[in-house]
Design goal:
The complex is a heterodimer of chains A (139) and B (146).
Chain A (H helix, E strand, L loop, with lengths): L13 E6 L5 H11 L9 H6 L9 H15 L5 E8 L10 E12 L2 E11 L5 E10 L2
Chain B lengths: L13 E4 L2 H10 L10 H6 L14 H5 L2 H8 L7 E10 L8 E14 L4 E11 L5 E12 L1
Antiparallel strand pairs in B: 1-3, 2-5, 3-4, 4-5
Classes of the chains: A alpha+beta (139), B alpha+beta (146).
Chain lengths: 139, 146
């Protein structure tokens, strides 16, 4: 990986996007175990239905972790200063998420040259599920 | 309605030891294939002492300890009405295999929107390592749909 440099990165540059396979029950069960989020609404259809949902649905933090992969696939994680996400919609079974980011600002923060990145994940129908933002310090 | 007395409440500390097999499992669960997250040699070549915890991993600390779900119970938010609204991480230094991270959180705000149809709980956290160095600051917004 050739890490981006502050000089060469331009506002408007797109980060390489990440296309995920459709969410299935195995994805959710594995993430429940790995993340420690054992909330049964994500893994037990009976609990999901009692809560008024048609079926189990993805953990928000799974979607945020995928956006994190977009960031760390672009620049080393040691350069990531800030990462935030707003969960806008529920990611359902069968949703195939596309996660991407775009450089929206070059700035100096705490004596470091940084870029601000807008992030978004959307399903195959173009419905945005998570929007986010990150600050990455670049050499 | 969530009792506003909880504003200022501090949760008991949650201690998370960063373990190799857990990070490898987490990488698998999120489809991460970059060897920096699964192979200690690749991590060292990238300048880390060992596998680094991915950017959102520290959220696990209060899930593993049970503090997160005990808080939801204490606030009397039914799990069926709970949504994760926002999450942020400000990273100060990496947490790697062998580190022990302590997360200390407090409830910084509780407020309502849409005439009380939605209530929001803001939790802010500091994560420090075994050298008492600041690793990350976290901010979570939990949403209760009435």
């Amino acid at each position: 990986m050739n890490p981006p440099s502050f000089e060469t990165v331009q506002v408007g540059d797109e980060l390489p996007s990440l296309q995920l396979p459709p969410v299935n029950r195995t994805t959710l069960a594995l993430f429940a175990g790995a993340s420690g989020d054992h909330n049964p609404i994500h893994i037990d259809i009976d609990v999901a239905r009692r809560a008024g949902m048609p079926d189990v649905f993805a953990q928000g933090m799974l979607g945020m972790a995928w956006l994190g992969r977009v960031l760390t696939g672009w620049a080393p994680q040691s350069r990531l200063r800030h990462f935030e996400a707003r969960f806008q919609g529920i990611t359902h079974l069968g949703n195939a998420m596309r996660c991407g980011g775009r450089v929206v600002e070059k700035l100096e923060r705490d004596g470091e040259r940084c870029v601000r990145i807008e992030l978004q994940s959307a399903n195959q129908y173009g419905q945005a599920k998570i929007v986010g933002e990150a600050l990455v310090a670049l050499p | 309605m969530i009792d506003r007395k909880w504003i200022g409440h501090e949760l008991p500390a949650s201690v998370l030891t960063i373990e190799r097999s857990r990070l490898q499992f987490f990488a698998q669960a999120i489809g991460e294939t970059d060897p920096v997250y699964t192979d200690a040699t690749a991590a060292r070549d990238a300048g880390y002492p060992d596998l680094p915890a991915p950017p959102t991993f520290l959220f696990a600390a209060e899930l593993d300890s049970g503090a997160a779900f005990r808080l939801i119970d204490a606030l009397q938010i039914p799990i069926a009405k709970l949504l994760h609204g926002e999450q942020s991480f400000t990273h100060h230094r990496p947490a790697c295999v062998g580190d022990t991270v302590t997360v200390r959180s407090g409830i910084s705000d509780i407020y309502a929107k849409k005439n009380g149809a939605l209530e929001f709980v803001v939790k802010t956290s500091r994560a420090t390592n075994q050298h008492d160095e600041l690793v990350a600051e976290l901010r979570s917004v939990l949403v209760c749909r009435h």
